[in-house]
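We emphasize that the prediction below concerns an isolated chain of 322 residues; any contacts that depend on oligomerization or on bound cofactors are therefore not represented. The input was used exactly as deposited, without trimming of termini.
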Amino acid sequence: MNNSLYPLQFEPILKERIWGGTKLRDVLNKPITSDITGESWEISTVQNDVSIVSNGIFKGKSLNELIDKFPLDILGEKVISKFGKQFPLLFKFLDAREDLSIQVHPNDKLANKRHNSFGKTEMWYVMQADDSAKLIVGFKEKSSREEYLKHLNENTLVTILDTKEVKKGDVFFLATGTVHAIGAGTLIAEIQQTSDITYRLYDFDRVDANGNKRELHIDLALDAINYDVVASEKEYSKEVNVSNEIVNCDYFTTHFVPLNGNYSVKKNKDSFYVYMCVEGEFELEFENQKDYYKKGDSILIPASINDYSFSGKASLLEIYIS
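Result of the prediction step, given as a token string:
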């Protein structure tokens, strides 16, 4: 075991997007410099976007460097047995000032064949939603390739998709193949497989600052889409100071921890844990050291750390590989 590891934080990787805004700065205190910042990648090992440690003795080191040096201590035995010595998840905050494109993600088999990549199973936790903010998740009724293409060609795709008005605390689990879009006015915490493969189906005929439309991936998407109706919205309990399961899938398990007082964790060393603070502030105590965190912070607990505790008033997403 490596005794020098500790709860890790990382520099946010900020992404300008045509649909982005300023909530990442105004609500989550991220150091954005553009009024169209759509994403803060909190923990990532996507090629060319690898997270850099921002705290402690490993400050300035990349997450990949630490995994290379301490693979078992960072990732855990179960993670390595399932995914090898690579970090299998990507954690983000997203600010949609405008609607995102309607899109779909391929499964592992298709993504590996076409892109030598993981697929992209993901989940959304709605941190804030403006009045009447909406998400698109799947089809209203069972569809087909032919019906989908007909509506796509006639610019009526939205009419056959399931649109849901959302509020703070809503959660959606998006299996690969689910056609989806984040709507304007939402601030989202997103947990997904380590993948940046997106097939864009429709982009509302938008153009960028140079008058160019973004690329669509109509043909690639045809074999990736699940044309069945899917039940994406997740109900979950919110018992205070305990870990309430929201999602349990092959790629990640996510729990909701409403903290109002104290919450202690004694875990095995099979997996790293990640905590995303979606509301409030708290202290994390580990080996008699206390560190302060607030809304918008994300923390990676290496697998070798199995005893720590929280105190404060906050809402946390707790994510690990089971």
